[in-house]
């Protein structure tokens, strides 16, 4: 599917010092490079190989994905909120495409 | 019954399950159960149920998100979008509980996928979407999701009656090299193991579903085709009269169970 | 007769004997462990671990690393995988990376989670593909260079409803 719009759950508000959970989903077939098509030809690998979450410009969590990650990759992790946070999420595709999303956490 | 036992023994697939069944039979499944009817949800592993329950873990919602954008996008020669006629998508609440319905102009039953394509070709003057395309699956999920939690309520009287009878005949007819009818697995042996899987009652209330095996969302007719392939029968085409009538039968069979689209199933 | 053919026959006899003793489950877990296959899998895993952490010797991480995987996966295409490592996640003492491997896949790498003190917790989850019943191995690299390891077996069932 050409549409790689991600879905992200980030709390809108948090207290200073809170450690909050973030969940992300993105549509991607995660073609492993292990499968063959009907003609017996190997379908070339094409996966999302890197995910990064930056908070106020600084990487706080990242992951290197291998072909063993299921289609439509799901990732959950935590960040520590120390003040109003601008979050930026980035997924890097084997084909060079980069998919991005943003979110904000306000501090009460 | 005797023939059934022989066919299964030949295939070497069904074992009469022990402890697992006893466990699930005594559970209270709340809204996922209506009398003796149980949603496929109740036959899934806890991890699979958890994946369905959280809309940020359930990949079915990814497809729905793109369909939401399409709802208000004009397409076709008429320059109309779904929203131009129907307003907000929430106007579709309850619609999915009644489908398939009898469609006078064609003199046949029509399911949601066909209704969407009928709108596209007749009202929007646009190309119909291909069966099993992300667009058609996504829009079907979006429309059905508006009825999420509402009980299935499919009518089989009036003009629907003869089509219901056809669907029923399909359901109970043995087919394929394994000589199995839908009912042999999903009525006679639901709750028992077919190799490592537990046979469900074959309820359609969660379709289109995100299937772990497919690693994507798929239609009820794709599942029908898979079942037919499994018993080594010649499958019908998705969207065929045979499968729409079968959909009518199994949807009515699910009356009372909640719409669960997009569900997650093994 | 080649040695492997001989082994195959011995194994079959073994299965029959054990099944008669109604311990078929034990036999099932032993069956895929043909020595050659196991050796190849462990060599691939060793190589992958060496690539990730070099020559460091991992210590036993049981009790520090919680590896959350189902005992039996409903479908090998989509197996939940969670990891939590006990750590203060302070600037001078935190978990840097958790490497995850699956020793029975065509290639053992699954994912590497990279944490920072601002992660707050060394905890993450995803979903993975497992080709068959196998071990999932977790290696946690700490900020002081120490490496801890733990593993868990996931049984991957062969479904009947392949449609």
UniProtKB/TrEMBL annotation, chain A:
Domain Sulphur oxidation protein SoxZ: 8-103
Highest taxon in the source lineage: Bacteria
Transmembrane segments annotated in the record for this chain: none
Short name of one Pfam family: SoxZ
InterPro entries per the UniProt record, alphabetical: Ig-like_fold, Ig_E-set, SoxZ, SoxZ_dom
Protein's UniProt name: Sulfur compound chelating protein SoxZ
UniProtKB/TrEMBL annotation, chain B:
Keyword Lipoprotein set for record: no
Binding sites annotated in the UniProt record for substrate: 223
Residues that bind heme c 2: 182, 185-186, 227
Cofactor notes: Binds 2 heme groups per subunit.
GO molecular function: electron transfer activity; heme binding; metal ion binding; oxidoreductase activity, acting on a sulfur group of donors, cytochrome as acceptor; transferase activity
Positions that bind heme c 1: 82, 85-86, 119
Cofactor: heme
UniProt EC number: 2.8.5.2
Classification via Pfam families: SoxA-TsdA_cyt-c (PF21342)
Subunit structure: Heterodimer of SoxA and SoxX.
Protein name (Swiss-Prot/TrEMBL): SoxAX cytochrome complex subunit A
Organism annotation: Tistlia consotensis USBA 355
TrEMBL record, chain C:
Gene3D superfamilies, alphabetized: SoxY domain
InterPro entries in the cross-refs: SoxY (IPR032711), SoxY_sf (IPR038162), Sulphur_oxidation_SoxY (IPR016568), TAT_signal (IPR006311), TAT_signal_bac_arc (IPR019546)
Record PROSITE patterns: TAT
Membrane-crossing segments per the record: none
Entry keyword Ribonucleoprotein: no
Residue ranges occupied by any Ig-like SoxY domain in the UniProt entry: 50-161
Leader sequence segment: 1-38
Coiled coil start-end: none
Record's protein name: Thiosulfate-binding protein SoxY
Lineage of source species: Bacteria, Pseudomonadati, Pseudomonadota, Alphaproteobacteria, Rhodospirillales
């Amino acid at each position: 599917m050409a549409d790689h719009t991600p879905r992200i759950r980030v709390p809108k508000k948090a207290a200073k010092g809170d450690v909050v959970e973030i969940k992300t989903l993105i549509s991607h077939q995660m073609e492993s490079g292990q499968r063959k098509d009907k003609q017996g030809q190997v379908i070339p690998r094409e996966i999302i190989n890197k995910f990064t979450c930056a908070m106020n410009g600084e990487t706080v969590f990242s992951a290197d994905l291998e072909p063993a990650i299921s289609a439509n990759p799901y990732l959950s992790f935590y960040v520590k909120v120390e003040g109003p946070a601008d979050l930026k999420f980035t997924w890097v595709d084997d084909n060079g495409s980069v998919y991005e999303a943003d979110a904000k956490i306000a501090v009460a | 019954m005797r023939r059934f036992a022989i066919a299964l023994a030949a295939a070497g697939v069904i074992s009469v399950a022990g402890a697992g069944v006893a466990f699930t039979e005594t559970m209270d499944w709340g809204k996922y159960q209506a009398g003796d009817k149980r949603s496929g949800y109740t036959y899934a592993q806890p991890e699979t149920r958890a994946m369905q329950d959280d809309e940020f873990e359930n990949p079915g919602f990814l497809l729905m998100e793109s369909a939401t954008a399409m709802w208000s996008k004009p397409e076709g020669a008429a320059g109309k979008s779904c929203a131009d006629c129907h307003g907000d998508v929430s106007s579709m609440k309850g619609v999915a509980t009644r489908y398939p319905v009898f469609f006078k102009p064609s003199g046949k039953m029509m399911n949601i996928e066909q209704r969407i394509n009928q709108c596209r070709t007749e009202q929007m003057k646009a190309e119909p979407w291909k069966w099993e395309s992300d667009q058609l699956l996504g829009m079907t999920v979006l429309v059905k999701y508006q009825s999420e939690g509402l009980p299935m309520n499919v009518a089989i009287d009036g003009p629907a009656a003869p089509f219901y009878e056809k669907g029923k005949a399909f359901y109970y007819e043995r087919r394929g090299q394994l000589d199995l009818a839908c009912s042999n697995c999903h009525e006679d042996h639901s709750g028992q193991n077919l190799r490592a899987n537990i046979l469900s009652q074959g309820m359609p209330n969660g379709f289109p579903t995100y299937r772990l095996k497919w690693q994507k969302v798929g239609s009820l007719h794709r599942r029908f085709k898979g079942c037919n392939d499994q018993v080594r029968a010649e499958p019908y085409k998705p969207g065929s009269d045979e499968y729409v009538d079968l959909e009518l039968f199994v949807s009515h069979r699910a009356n009372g169970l909640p719409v669960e689209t997009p569900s997650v199933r093994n | 007769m080649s040695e492997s053919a001989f082994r195959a026959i011995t194994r079959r006899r073994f299965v029959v004997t054990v099944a008669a003793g109604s311990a078929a489950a034990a036999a099932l877990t032993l069956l895929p462990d043909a020595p050659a296959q196991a050796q190849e899998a462990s060599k691939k895993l060793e190589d992958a671990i060496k690539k990730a952490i070099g020559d460091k010797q991992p210590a036993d991480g049981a009790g520090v690393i919680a590896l959350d995987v189902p005992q039996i996966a409903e479908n090998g295409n989509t197996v939940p995988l969670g990891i939590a490592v006990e750590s203060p996640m302070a600037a001078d003492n935190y978990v840097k990376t958790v490497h995850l491997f699956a020793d029975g896949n065509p290639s053992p790498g699954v994912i590497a989670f990279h944490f920072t003190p601002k992660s707050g917790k060394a905890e993450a989850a995803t979903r993975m593909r497992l080709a068959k019943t196998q071990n999932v191995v977790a290696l946690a690299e700490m900020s002081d260079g120490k490496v801890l390891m733990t593993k868990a077996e996931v049984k991957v069932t062969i479904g009947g409803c392949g449609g």
